[in-house]
Amino acid sequence: MKKYTLKRLFTSLFTLLAILLVLFILMQLMPGSPFNDEKLNDDQRAALYAKYGLDQPVLVQFFRYVGNMLRGDYGVSYNISKNTPISQLIQTRLPTSIYIGGAAVALGALMGLILGLIAALKHDTVWDTLATVISVIGVSVPSYVFALALSYALGFRLQWFPMLYNTQLATQSSVLPSIALSMFTMASIARFTRTEMLEVLDSDYMLLAESKGISGPALIFRHALRNALIPIITVLAPLIVDLMTGSLVVEKIFAIPGVGSLLVNAIQSNDYNVVISLSFIYSAMYIAIMLVVDILYGIIDPRIRLAKEGD
Amino acid sequence: MADKEKILDIKDLDISFKTTAGVVHAIRGVDIDLFTGETVAIVGESGSGKSVTMKAAMGILASNATVNRGTIQFSYHHADGSPATVDILAQPKKWIRDHINGKRIAMVFQDPMTSLNPTMSIGKQIMEGMIWHFKTPKAEAYAKAVDLLREVGIDDPEKRMKNYPHQLSGGMRQRVVIAIALSCNPDLLICDEPTTALDVTIQAKIIELIRRLQKERGISVIYITHDLGVVAKVADYVNVMYAGKIVEKGTVDEIFYDPRHPYTWGLLSAMPDLDTADERLYTIPGSPPNLLYEKPGDAFAPRNRYALVVDDKAEPPMFKITEDHYVASWLLDPRAPKVEMPAELKARIARMKEEAAKHGGEL
Amino acid sequence: MAKKQPVLAAAQTAYVPADADFVLKNVDGALMLDTNFASQSFWKDVLVRFFRKKSSVLGLALIIIITLMSIVGPGMNAYTYDGQQLTQKNLAPRVQGLENYGIFDGSETMHTTSGNKTVNNYVEKDLTDVYYWFGSDNFGRDIWTRTWSGARVSLIIAAAAALIDMVIGMSYGLISGYFGGRVDMVMQRFLEIMNGIPRLVIVTLLLLVLEPGMLTIIFALMLTEWVGMSRIARAEMLKLKEQEFVLASRTLGAGKFFIIFREVLPNIIGPIITQVMFSIPTAIFTEAFLSFVGLGIPVPRCSLGSLISEGFNAFTTHPYQIIPPVIAMALLMFSFNLVADGLREALDPKMKEM
After folding, report:
1. Does B170 reside within a domain?
2. What is d(CA B59, CA B10) in angstroms, rounded to the nearest whole number?
3. Checking phi first, is residue C294 left (phi over 0); if not, alpha (psi -120 to 50) or beta?
């Protein structure tokens, strides 16, 4: 387990470094240096270059860049909000996005688990068909279609919830975007839970547990669900990526002041520095989530936790 | 307990499965009975319905199975000693789980690699049944589980209690499965090919273990196997099963020394032994029938060298040879031509008898 | 042992054997023939299982219909996808024949703060002979034509991306799995790093560097989708490479790449096709997402995604503009998922049946 954790930690750090390298190279390639102002003369420019370390060898610049990024110093925005530090831009936006995204994951995972369990336990019945249809629709219809439908029906026509995000009514405003975002997670988890549960229910050890006389919730939760959950944890991480992608559009539809809409704005207004900083933040969050999920997986599954060192 | 008390009585069991390919008529009128303290073996090729019959007795048939006919009478004693007999097939699933499974009938499965829960320590898996059925306090269950592990021959049981299945070898796991089966003191133990998935050297040890436990605890055992060598070692009675039917049943001596059904002849001839080195090993031609397509008459006829014309027209009834010995073959009909078992088999049986005499009666 | 007296076998076969029946058949020769083999080939079995499932047939039918419509649909009326008629903008759907039944008659209900009112712009603008089956957009372009040509673009992008990532991912996975050892180690670490970068980030960064357009989108999809495919190919390879037929081929002196692509590949084509089917809806979705963010197909060409993006701007006032592309896309993704599901189950019936 120790070796497994270390290995995962190492891979994660290496991935982060690789991403930083790519971002760094992109930064160098991007047109428009911040100091290309025609009003500057050569001396002033050289002074600025020296101040920001741009006269140093590339490798030194890279490590300085890595240091800055890790410390949270992402530089300034050029177009969206001229010369505002990016860290300041995202300061309020990141919590909003995490709040909505987190709610969507929690909602989706819970609903998906329930739906998948029902489908598997009531295999080959109307319930199974119903749950399957819901989950196929959930993975087939993009989250922003749900977002549009919800915002039109519940926001615009019925006016149950704010159609656009309102910082004064943060909780109510988060309901529709969270539901829209959670659909894909829910559907995927439901599908996966169903197949995993069916496989587990069909296994020899379930037969042994039944032949011991175990029945009811003890059979389902103690024996089946635990074994089915282990592989389900592994799909959570990729689902969170889809959620990040979805959040960009959903934030735009509901006009949510989050990092997703910031990224869309940055892309549309060619604010490279913001795009690159947000890419780094997205990657870092994703890598952290993957790491946590993998370690969690190791803790839950004794086959990994108790694997002989060196396997 | 009066001797020769019947513990399990399966009558006219008929089961079919609904599969995507069609309805498979897997069990077609099976009668099996078993007396307290005795061992019955059910022998047959894979797919002959051995396991399905016993799963029916445990109430753990797959959900696409339908029981068309039959009863499974199981006799047991209540905690106060009063006897009771129930038809397991007529009981709701929940009742079977609470009163039969684990507590009175326990099962050992074929593959110990897959029959243990991979995410539960083996200690917990052994203790679970006791705590579930008898509300045994945890400390007591723990002590009992350690004793059981020692009883099934596992070293250092305290340490093993904390282990997970993947940390044990196949033979060890099968011992754990046996310990789980014994944890609630069942009256009847069903062993579904308990040694098939194990190394040959381990096989003998596991069989020996089951035999010892049976003697010590006085439980009845049903052995499902395709290995006649195992049968000879453990069984009192033998049921030979083919395509969802019992084709021959009798005491172990009758089946081995006086087999009457051509299929039993085939099984016995196909058994490798040391003395037949110069002969070709006999195999039964063809393969078991696909029960998806039922044909009239005797299901074994297409593979039977001694098939009669009538075999394609009508199913043979059970002919009685002795009080215990029954055969379902038209060859036993008085009108049938006299057919002798193959000469090679005759010679082999003679040799077996000789061997047995040398070793004092046991096969 | 108390036993029933011999009874006749089964009630339904009331055949009473006659003496003449009791003769040996003497069929020694025929005995050696084993006629009890699988009655149909593997692929036939798969097809039967696939077509038995209603949902997969529905999915397949929908895919065929939408594909056909994306080919012939744009030519079914006189409009072109980029033809603008600024005098005929924002017209509601109107279909010949159906208009007499009160539906698709070109009228739309406007929701305003002062209440709802129904208007028919065809009547008001005196366009009696003009029909836009799905309505027209803000530039007076025909939404019917644009929807089907958008579906065409989306399908081309998705199919191209899926095929390319199949080739790349499959080769990567097969090679990594077959060679194992250090090759596998290095290839898998690289894959882990690729997998560690969110798809969103890869696509966004790529589109910052390259010109937006069909090829760029296909390239971006290819870069992000091959990982899943390679995992499947590798897992299958690991399973198969120890099997006897591969060993036999190796002992016969077959080359490495012969074994990989001629011996193993045909045996894993099932899971691969299933994965392609699953990656097509992902590709459609990603393309739509990119268009929505503004990195999609450049105007005036359109894809389902860009149509939805355009429709979004007016979706509270003219909801009919967003409905056709949304439905087309949802149906496409839905049907590809159904087909993929059906295929997966047909190829690998998981449930034991006895």
Report:
1. no
2. 13
3. left
Burial class (CB in 10 A: 0-12, 13-18, 19+), B318: buried
**Domain of B28?**
1-90+225-363
Domain-embedded: residue B229:
yes
Lookup: tokens for C320:
């009919």
CB distance from A300 to chain B under 8 Å? yes
In a domain, C227, yes or no: yes
Whether A212 and B114 lie within 8 Å, measured CB to CB: no
Q: HSE on the CB side for B107, CA within 13 Å?
A: 31
- A218 to chain B: closest CA residue: B132
3-state secondary structure A131-195: HHHHHHHHHHCCHHHHHHHHHHHHHHHCCCCCCCCCHHHHHHHHHHHHHHHHHHHHHHHHHHHHH
- What the block records as the tokens of C242 is 């120890």
C307-342 burial by CB neighbour count: b if 16+ within 10 A, else e? bbbbbbeebbebbbbbbbbbebbbbbbbbbbbbbbb
Per the structure, the complete domain to which residue C96 belongs is given by 92-124
B74 belongs to a structural domain: yes
Q: What are phi and psi of B47, to 5 degrees?
A: 85, 0
ipTM for the predicted complex comes to 0.84
List, for residues A104-159, the tens digit of each pLDDT value: 989 999 999 999 998 888 887 888 888 888 888 888 777 778 888 888 778 777 77
Q: Count how many domains chain B has.
A: 1
pLDDT tens string B233-280 = 888 999 999 988 899 999 999 999 999 998 998 888 887 766 655 556
Q: Is residue C286 part of a domain?
A: yes
Q: Inter-chain contact A212–B128, Cβ cutoff 8 Å?
A: yes
**Judgement on whether residues C96 and C190 belong to the same structural domain of the protein:** no
Mapped onto helix, strand or coil, the DSSP state of residue C25 is: coil
Set of chain B residues whose Cβ sits within 8 Å of the Cβ of A302: 118-119, 121, 164, 166
**Helix spans in chain B (H):** 50-58, 93-99, 122-134, 138-151, 157-161, 170-182, 200-217, 228-234, 252-257, 262-269, 343-358
